[in-house]
Write a structure and sequence with these properties.
This protein has 122 residues and is mostly helical. It has one domain. Helices cover 62% and strands 0% of the residues. The longest helix has 31 residues.
């Protein structure tokens, strides 16, 4: 079984800085250090986020935050659609006005159904 190589942070930073300075092309760096192109660009992204003991690029940090928020919006949208369909099909009842916890309703429904699986009505 082939053992994974590990690279020191200083070496990663040196390679990325060489790439960014334009001294070497990506192809030259890939051949010289025997790494894949995806690894080189992964390191470049990490460098931009400040993970190699350097100052993070403000633009990259903001892009990372936007990406995280977009993932959260997508997750919440999917959950919302799931709950709407469950209410429409009568699988889930809406809480009464005095019960402010929809989570308890969903949790009790999951317990009755045996988990978070979704089965469509015939």
């Amino acid at each position: 079984m082939k053992r994974r190589r590990s690279f020191a942070i200083d070496l990663k930073r040196q390679i990325v800085e060489e790439l960014l300075s334009g001294v070497s092309t990506p192809a030259q760096l890939i051949r010289r250090y025997e790494i894949s192109s995806s690894l080189l660009y992964h390191w470049k992204e990490q460098y931009a986020n400040g993970r190699f003991n350097n100052e993070p690029n403000k633009e990259a940090a903001l892009e990372d935050r936007v990406r995280q928020l977009e993932q959260l919006v997508g997750k919440l949208t999917m959950e919302n659609e799931f709950l709407k369909k469950a209410v429409q099909r009568g699988l889930l009842t809406l809480p009464k006005k005095n019960d402010s916890s929809l989570l308890s309703t969903v949790t009790s429904w999951k317990a009755r159904k045996g988990g978070a699986t979704y089965e469509s009505a015939p």
